[in-house]
Amino acid sequence: MRVAVAGGTGVVGRLVVGELTAAGQKPVVLARSHGVDLVSGTGLDAALEGVVAVIDVSNMMTLGRAKAVAFFGTAGRNLLDAGARAGVGHHLALSVVGVDRVRHGYYQGKLAQEETVRGGRVPWTVLRATQFHEFVLQTLDRSPKPLAVVPRMRIRPVAAQEVARHLVELVLTPPRGMAPEFAGPREEQLVDLVRKVLRARGERRLVLPVRVPGAAGAAMAGGGQLPAGPGPRGVRTFDEWLTTAVTRDG
């Protein structure tokens, strides 16, 4: 069957497209490079012709609340409205574990996306997943050298490939509302993982763990981004992922 992948050219989107193909489905990529703009709605109606399900893994990199809410809210509404017009029977959105407990800017956008999905006219599923292993690299690379300023955060990092596979499994079953949260195999401290990356790169930087101010920081340090209940768990550890993801500098 034809399954649309919003954000199908991104890190997770490419993996979802591959998993759909391996499962014998026909992925339809929704991305600007394929003539579809989720924010303006350009190209959506034509792209969704004959599509029976949508997996939304679209994303934008921002820490600002206003930008995140505007993007996820607008893109989500456009995608759901076009899906309803096309007769889509299942809308599956990827969200993040802890968006209702850690209320910083990006998470406010994801929470707005969830609310949009729940209020739409298409039967839906929302899967909350923990941070991908790549999140550690992103955190490190955002910090200006020679320091590595790292928020105190308890996480259960997960392989993006495993999340992509689980999304495909979910979209091929009936809509279920809020699905059990998907998390990595074990709890880690973000600062410890950053140090592992630096060692793997052969890079010398002073690591400065910091606590993000306010309630959001307290939730991050206190486990607000860990799964709140039982659910599926990935098996690939951060250490296993790191052996192939990072090469030493020089």
State the main characteristics:
250 residues, alpha/beta, Rossmann fold, 6-stranded parallel β-sheet, two-stranded parallel sheet, 9 helices, 10 strands, globular
Mean pLDDT: 94
Tell me which CATH architecture applies here: 3-Layer(aba) Sandwich
| Strand count | 10
| CATH fourth-tier homologous superfamily | NAD(P)-binding Rossmann-like Domain
Under CATH at level 1, the class stands as: Alpha Beta
How much strand content do the residues show?
15-25%
Order of helices and strands: EHEHEHEHEHEEHEEHEHH
Q: Which strands sit side by side, in order, in the main sheet?
A: 2-1-3-4-5-8
Q: What Rg do the Cα atoms give?
A: 18 Å
Q: End-to-end span in angstroms?
A: 47 Å
Morphology call: globular
Helix/strand class: alpha/beta
The largest sheet, given as strand count, sense and whether it forms a barrel, is:
6 strands, parallel
Provide the fold topology.
Layout: E1 2-6, H1 11-22, E2 26-30, H2 44-47, E3 53-56, H3 65-86, E4 90-96, H4 105-118, E5 124-129, H5 134-142, E6 147-151, E7 154-155, H6 160-171, E8 177-178, E9 188-189, H7 190-201, E10 206-210, H8 214-221, H9 238-245
Parallel strand pairs: 1-2, 1-3, 3-4, 4-5, 5-8, 6-10
Antiparallel strand pairs: 7-9
Helix pairs in contact: 1-6, 3-4, 5-7, 7-9
